[in-house]
Amino acid sequence: MPLLEPGPHALRPGGPREAAPDRVSDRSATGTPEPLRSDLIALLGAGKVLWKVSDLVKYASDASPYRFLPRVVVVAEDVDDISAVLSYAHGKKRNVVFRAAGTSLNGQAQGEDILVDVRRHWSGITVLDGGARARIRPGTTIARANAALARHGRVLGPDPASAIACTVGGVVANNASGMTAGTTRNSYRTVSSLSFVLPGGTMVDTADPAADELLARSEPRLCEGLLALKEEIGADEVLTARIRAKYEIKNTNGYRLDAFLDGTTPVEILRGLMVGSEGTFGFLSEIVFDTLPLDRRLSTALLFFPSLTAAAAAVPLFNAAGALAVEVMDGNTLRASVSVRGVPADWAALPRATAALLVEFRAPDEAALEGYERAAASVVAGLDLVAPAASVTNVFTRDRATINGYWKARKAFVTAVGGSRPSGTTLITEDFAVPPSRLADACEALLELQERHGFDAAVAGHAAHGNLHFLLAFDAGAPADVERYAAFMEAFCTLVVDRFDGSLKAEHATGRNIAPFLEREWGPRATELMWRTKRLIDPAGVLAPRVVLDRDPRAHLRGLKTIPSVEPVADPCIECGFCEPTCPSQDLTTTPRQRIVLRREMLRQSDGSPVENALLDAYGYDAVDTCAGDSTCMLACPVGIDTGAMMKGFRSQRHSPREERIAALTARHFGVVEAAARLAVGVAGSLGDRVRDPLLTSVTRLARRVVRPDLMPEWLPQLPPAAPRALPPTSRAGAHAVYFPACVNRIFAGPGGRREPSLAHSVVALSARAGRPVWIPDDVTGTCCATIWHSKGYDAANAVMANRVVEAAWGWTGGGALPLVVDATSCTLGIAREVVPHLTEENRALHAELTVVDSLVWAADELLPRLTVVRTVGSAVVHPTCSMEHLGLVERLRALAGACAEEVFVPDDARCCGFAGDRGMLHKELTDSATAKEAAEVATRDFDAHLSANRMCEIGMDRATGHPYRSVLMELERATRPARATHATGGPG
């Protein structure tokens, strides 16, 4: 369906536009050419081949400054698909690039021919040996793997700042390390075994005792060649010494030639070569890691210095004291970090030369941590610190919230600095390493080099390991700016190699930006050995050409992407991909990053081009309709880009004046709408499943075709029965709070229907039982949090209800004298935050006097301490909703569930369910996709209770798991109900 109805051109930018030099050409408007499209569909099936131009564009960008349009995208489901694609590429002389999270900073996840998505169907972790090892599939994020390992007190060695988004496969393929990995905890040192597919289709499991025998049988030439190279390298003492020296500091530039020194058999050599090979030697289908102890005791400080060189000079002192992490941030980084939620605003006023060190000690026990803190105090006493650290007596803290805030600022380096770059400029992220003892000199030299070439770059990095990162911004569409950047790179590579004998790539892997400079660092002899290794393993050159090895001295200037300005909310986006794992539609249509990538391509096009038209046609469903609008992308984005709000804005633009009037009418007469909805649900419930579900499904589908799928909900068989007509009786006298039952809880009953107390009856009973009675206003019916209209972009209707509910709440609470307790977290979020921009000036003043309290907070903080639990269940699984994430209520949910159950389980794959109010009824495929992984995790065992605190999300989880989810407050009422009490009823029918 086109993006906008009835105005299909509403998203076209106004004013004249010139096509950008890197725009997708008109010949690509029809997508993947023939016979490539038909060949792959015949080989793999239509569902695994993405061929529309919108599909190709959304995969053309990653976190790097490069942009290459693939000819086709294959969503591989298993190793057989991988083998089939490789075989096809061999036969047709085509190229293949594997892409997982797309967080690569140097274009490793981009291809110009066949691009294979190995994220969507490749997640999963199996914990082995009590956590000592873990078998992990390549599409699993580092954060997801560590969440599973944390239960066993273990953690992976690599810890990149992008752990929330980057995948294990990508981390191993790039030998990415992070804050603490250094040269001893990275993938090369901690991978126990690998399973991979070679370019010719041969599958290897390095843990198989017969692996070398099997490989010799299937790939004799490869085995002979690897052993010959091993012998040649080992016989060259000068080269051997050089290789060993290069890996004494962090180095991911080029192939791991030390694999020939460390491995004794072809399989062992391949195991080493695969790490850091950037997808050019094969596909990693499974990785087994040796894990490390998760030292949970932390002591951390953020120390401010008068200059970057002064900070760097202190690094060896903290290293000697035993610090596991010493991170440096220069003044530009500190000032840019102010855009990150929680970072002190006064950082913006820090003197330009100020720099900071983030120092952390980790220990397994109290005695060890105290020893570290004594050593750290001795170091700090001799430092010349500046405010604010200089004014603090004890600069080290164990407070987790404070520590998390420090790390949040540090990990946001790329996104925060990138978000503050001049509009329209492209961001280059580089990293290099020098011996830690020379870090101060390297900092000084880097700053001088940047100034000489007209760059005011930001610098941060893993100072403990001599590893610095810096960011440069320039206009990729301006030839003069590109040449200025080229001149800087020449000088930079000469500086690092000739002056410091450093690594041009410390942890981001070679990539397209450093490939032309590989020989500058390694010299002709070692570089030629790398070329020979590539030709030996991939003789047809099928995998990822030009990613690691490229003889073109200007290859790093090819494919640079322009960044056209789009909607202001999205302009700061650097396409890092941190948002993607949180997105409910990530496996269905598009992610937040891809929504912005597609929008930018529209802006690159000349007005009315075939490509722009094709993108607009696809954008309506792929981007706008299937966005849950939950804004969890904003939580994941270090600079808070709310792509959900952007999509709601587009929904608003597509509405006709008539639709806006009808929506406003429903808001003004919501009492009638609410009663009609409850009646309709009640009548539907009286029909019986066999009659009701087919009938109402057919009727609503017909109505969707007549009206519009994004406006007319579809009947779902899992919808619960109608709630009781009457709310429980309460009294204003003596009430400790005003209780606002959300409209969804006034329309739908709980999963038990009339067989159990309603949520409203449960909240009233619990509050009375705890001596904190609540009052439900008589005129609560017909009021709403306004989210129904807000989520669809109906601005006028949203404003009507937003102002009505605030005015009513102000009156109910006596001008804010009593708190307003809301029993659905999404509604709490709506009333507490989302209504504010739509209020009149007078009502904003009223809103400021209100205290809006979610029922989870009310129950956990006010009721639970005054209640006695008399019965519990054995186990409960909980579903934290996206609104709980926004409001910081997940721990309250866990605490309440913990009062009702002996064991509480929060699925590692718990995410927004995508139901998003009624969006799960408008596009049920969104909820099906969003809940698939969480449902699979829940299905691995039996639970006695399935709990949440938002009715529509509970309905979504009912559909996903086949188990009835209910409010944790209903379970708490049951758990604390006196043994002598009779079963409460749901109230009059």
Describe the 3D structure.
There is one protein chain. The chain is α/β, with parallel strands linked by helices and 989 residues long. It has a 6-stranded antiparallel beta sheet with strand order 12-14-13-16-17-15, sandwiched between helices. It has a 5-stranded antiparallel beta sheet with strand order 5-6-10-8-9. It has a 4-stranded mixed beta sheet with strand order 1-2-4-3, covered by helices on one side. Among the domains are: 1-20 and 564-650, Fumarate Reductase Iron-sulfur Protein, Chain B, domain 2 (Orthogonal Bundle); 300-505, FAD-linked oxidases, C-terminal domain (Vanillyl-alcohol Oxidase, Chain A, domain 3, 3-Layer(aba) Sandwich), CATH 3.40.462.10; 737-976, no CATH class. The protein has 40 helices and 25 strands. Helix 39 (951-961) links the parallel strand 24 and strand 25 (966-967). It is 43% helix and 12% strand.
Q: Which runs of at least 5 residues are low in confidence (pLDDT < 50)?
A: 1-9, 984-989
Q: Strand pairing plus helix content: what structural class?
A: alpha/beta
Task: State the strand order across the main sheet.
Answer: 12-14-13-16-17-15
Mean pLDDT: 91
Shape: globular
Q: Output the number of helix runs.
A: 40
